[in-house]
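#onboarding

Welcome to the new folks! Below is a worked example of what a typical request in this channel looks like: someone posts a single protein sequence, and someone else replies with the predicted structure as tokens. Don't worry about understanding the tokens yet, we'll cover that in week two.

Example request:
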Amino acid sequence: MSRAREVHLAKSDADIERCFSVMVQLRSHLTPDVFVEQVKRQTKDGYMLAFVEEDNAVKAVAGFRIMEMLLHGRFLYVDDLVTDSRDRSRGHGALLFTWLVRFAEQNNCKRLDLDSGVQRDGAHRFYFQQGMHISAYHFAIEITHSKALASRYP
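Example response:
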């Protein structure tokens, strides 16, 4: 008999470790040790890790934090959201997304935001199905490459 799907917050190193096999599908540069240590460091700044578990296996993972900005007020920002590639389109991502929206509501957030790589078409379809819309462009510059800027702005 299949055990019901449940969403949990990672509270221990063991919980964090269990999330690695799914998270690495989105963040392929990570190793298990680096992942656990970085999650623990980020937790000090408000990062939380939620996961969907079914039959004692992690099926989907979300890293998120509550933030406040002049632009939006208080909001929940999703850093990472991924469903195990073997278990996509089975409702795990939708369950986790709904849980995140409720968590945001319970914590007096006005909205839920996330960034998604332009190449992630499947994820974008999922976000649209969840009622999200594209609200902005996100711009970035790698600081290690900013020496070229120094010549432009002495």
